[in-house]
Amino acid sequence: KQWYQRRVAITAGEAPPYDPTSVAVQLSELRTQMREESLALREEMYSMLGSMFGVAADNSQVEAVNQLVEEVKRYKEMTLAQTQACTEMLQAQAPKLERLENMMEVARAEVRLISQHKLTWQNTTHSAAGGLQSDYAVDGVYTLSGAYEGVNPIQSTGGQGNEVLIVDLGALFKIHTVKAWNRLDCCQDRPIGAYVYADEFLIGGFNEAKNLYTFVVNGEVYAQKIIFKQPLNKQMNFIEVQVFGSGPFGEHEV
What does the pLDDT look like over 117-140, one tens digit per residue? Predict the structure, then answer.
């Protein structure tokens, strides 16, 4: 029951800090309590059987109960010794665990590239070069070459209107900057009219033709997906899409 209540509290973001020492003590106390209750139940059963048949418990039954009592005592002593050893071990490791936690928090707070080689999706795909897939938008390849079918592959939708490109970051991140590298060989006006979102939050729009678009996100914007939408009846293609942010974070942390 306590475990279930804690899981509910964790989901709601209301759980107290995790205390491994407290959990170990609780488990030890629970084991001891269960053994003692089992012993009490056996004694009660022996007494009931003796009353039912009009006889008292014989010596063998008394001896069995005594052995159980001694076994419970030894088990309790062993459990307390194990609990003490675990407590001492955890106390000895506490500084290392604290340093590790601090390092993890520093890593989460660092603004870094969080989109490369992540999952992507687009609702249509241009058939050139065997298919200009959405994965090309986050493959890490972006050069000044115009060879979009070779060393510098581009992502491209089919141009049927209401085009969508999605980059799934895989978790909830705080979004700082989104960069979109336009194709260099031709058609640099294709992004014009498109919009970029962090989940449902509008980051910005494309209103001119240029090589690189940079959208700086102001405020506390957390998202799992970066979404490009082109409502006009034309293709949407990029050499590379880069998302910079920090995290990941749990939903109860934002």
Answer: 999 999 999 988 778 999 999 999
Backbone angle region of 170, left / alpha / beta, with phi > 0 → left and psi within -120 to 50 → alpha: left
Q: How far is CA 176 from CA 95, 102, 203, 215, 216, in A?
A: 33, 22, 10, 9, 6
**42 vs 29, 72, 228, CA distance in Å?**
20, 13, 70
Q: How far apart are CA 168 and CA 121, in angstroms?
A: 8
Q: Output DSSP code: residue 231.
A: -
Q: Which two tokens stand for residue 231?
A: 């409502």
The answer to whether 168 touches 120, Cβ cutoff 8 Å, is: yes
Angle between helix 20-52 and helix 59-109 axes, rounded to 10 deg: 160
Instruction: Output phi, psi for 17, to 5 deg.
Output: -55, 145
235 closest CA partner among 150, 132, 145, 159: 159
* 44-85 pLDDT per residue, tens: 666 655 555 454 556 666 677 677 777 778 888 888 888 888
Closest CA to 108 of 219, 252, 246: 246
Contact between 180 and 136 under an 8 Å Cβ cutoff? The reply is: no
Lowest mean pLDDT among 165-174, 181-190, 234-243: 181-190
